[in-house]
Amino acid sequence: MAAPSTRGRPDQEQQTGAGPAEPHDRSRVEVRRSARRSRTVSAYREGDRTVVLIPARMSHAEEQRWVAQMLEKLAAQEKRRVLGDDALMARARDLSAAYLGGRAQPVQVRWVTNQNSRWGSCTPAEGTIRLSHRLQGMPEYVLDYVLLHELAHLLVPDHGPAFWALLEAYPRTERARGYLEGVVSAARLPHIPGARSEGPGVDPAGSCG
After folding, report:
1. What is the value of pTM for the model shown?
2. Domain carrying residue 160
3. In a domain, 159, yes or no
4. Separation of alpha carbons 163 and 206, rounded Å
């Protein structure tokens, strides 16, 4: 069996079963089997569920072993990636200095768990930025893009040409937008009893405010 992967993009697999999450992980686990997979195992988060992709020929015992391993691997990756609120503020200031000439000066930047229709939001009058916890575990360039998006709103409240001009300096804007759009698209696909794709931190809903 090849080394497991927790990165990539959704591919077409047949869902064949679902299992309860491990005790340390409250999210629901879906196992999706694919005849196109011969050796690789991968996993990603999709909202409150964890999707594990395995070869169709894998036995039930192997499935259980790999599910446990992938849950541990995802949890370890996410723990390394999650920043505290203070670190988020420091990151926001660095991004503002690097791409916005230091003009965006947030008063507060923090994670929130009540944003299910946006990746981020801000209140320009108060200088506050809130990021959805669903971003935790996503690639750093995606988090940076969402932070920059909200920082830009401190300068330009709407989504007009002046706003998007501010984000042109960030080289991964289009890549990050494509990643988030893929996350939303994958989450809206119909679910049959079973499983699907690769890549951490997936959930429906989505654009920055």
Report:
1. 0.56
2. 85-182
3. yes
4. 18
